[in-house]
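The record is given unchanged here:
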Amino acid sequence: MSECHCGKKISFEDCCAPIINNTTKASSAEQLMRARYSAYATASVDFLHDSLHPDSREDFDFEATQHWAESSTWHHLSILASKAGQKEDKVGSVDFIAAYTDEDDVEHRHCERSQFKKVDDAWYFCDGQTIVPEKVGRNDPCSCGSGKKFKKCCG
C-alpha cells in the first residue's frame, strides 16, 4: 500500500478520496487542507471549486486550475502548523508547504497560511497568504526539507 498524496501513511482510498468524492466531510480544517492538496494531485477540479467558501467561488477558473493540476507533478505536502479548525471551532488556519514541479520542470515549494471557515458543519477554504515558514538565514537550509538553501527555495 502506498501512502496518500497528502502524506498520511494510509491509502488515498481510505484517506482523502472519500472527502474528494463527497462521501464524507472533512472533520477539521487540516483534513480539508490535505484533501485539497490530494485534489490537485488527482486533478479533482470540481472538489477544489466546491471546497471553496461560497463567498470565494466567483473568481474560480476551472480551466486554469485543471491545466495547473494536470501539468504539475505533485511531490509532497508538509503541514507546519494548525491553529483551531477542529470539530468545535468555526474557523481555523493551516500553515503548509506544497512541493511540486511545474510543466517547465521547475521545482516549487509553495509556503502558505490557509484560512478556513465552517458553515453548516462543513469546512471551506477561504483564502491563503504566502508565508516564510520560520526565521532562517538566506544561506541556511530551507525549513521545508528540500535540501536547498533558503534563498533558492521558499525565500
Summary: The mean pLDDT is 91. The beta strands are 73-84, 91-101, 107-119, 122-130. The chain has four helices and four strands. The longest helix spans residues 29-41.
